[in-house]
Write a structure and sequence with these properties.
six-stranded parallel beta sheet
């Protein structure tokens, strides 16, 4: 059963150039039945959003800045999120912002049993990232579209993060946590556990569409495909044994 999502966008904090890719990404996780964007629409900096709202069926919520230096948009989003939570009309939330002020909101929604997806720029503070079930960097969404549209011989991975020992340790410990006696672990279980340990882990951050090719690119691991009873191939992974 597809889950219903409330999408709440901080218009003061997210560039309008990412809206198409964001909505396509959100659709992977559920049906966005509520879509709202918050900001002071009397200000010229939000003018680029206006033409995109009708195209994506996003409802603009007017929020005046009552006091200089205070972000009234954040407060309006938080109040609306709690109203939606108590209405019991959705199963989860997408909070689109790079602002750490939404950290406590994400935690509160998860405490209530809601699934919380965060979307924001790479500058997003870590407390907000780890407060979400999953966090997606919106820059990666734009880069992936550009990569798909323009096929060149240039190594596009230069645009992405490098895989470091930190990521390799995350994969290895997650394999160990769910492996059988022979050291093999179902890749789906490994991916789910990694997401819980590090919500912003995404193979696309490193230039790979899926987790399988990312792991194949690391010499530390080996992958095996197995045929299931339903003729579906299941992917298993384990840490390579060190041989002298």
């Amino acid at each position: 059963m597809e889950i219903k999502l409330a999408v709440l966008i901080d218009g003061d904090n997210i560039p309008s150039a990412y809206v198409k890719e964001m909505m396509e990404e959100i659709a992977k996780y559920g049906n966005p039945t509520i879509k709202r964007i918050y900001g002071d629409w009397t200000k010229p900096n939000l003018s680029k959003w206006k033409n995109l709202l009708l195209e994506n069926a996003i409802t603009p919520i007017q929020q005046y800045g009552y006091t200089t230096g205070k972000n009234a948009t954040d407060s309006a989003m938080i109040i609306d999120a709690m109203d939606i939570l108590y209405s019991q009309k959705v199963d989860g939330f997408c909070i689109v912002s790079s602002d750490s002020d939404f950290t406590r909101l994400a935690m509160r929604l998860r405490e209530a049993g809601m699934k919380v997806y965060g979307l924001g720029e790479k500058k997003t503070p870590n407390p907000f990232i780890v407060a979400c079930d999953k966090f997606i960097y919106i820059e990666i969404l734009k880069q992936q579209v550009q990569k798909d549209e323009i096929e060149t011989t240039v190594n596009n991975k230069n645009e992405y993060d490098k895989i470091t020992q930190k990521e390799i340790r995350l994969i290895a410990t997650s394999i160990d946590d769910v492996a059988d006696d022979d050291g093999w672990a179902f890749l789906g279980d490994v991916g789910s556990l990694m997401q819980k340990k590090r919500p912003n882990f995404d193979s696309r951050n490193y230039g790979f569409q899926k987790l399988t090719p990312l792991i194949k690119s690391i010499n530390t691991f080996e992958i095996e495909s197995r045929q299931s009873k339903g003729r579906m191939k299941l992917v298993y992974v384990r840490i390579k044994e060190i041989t002298n």
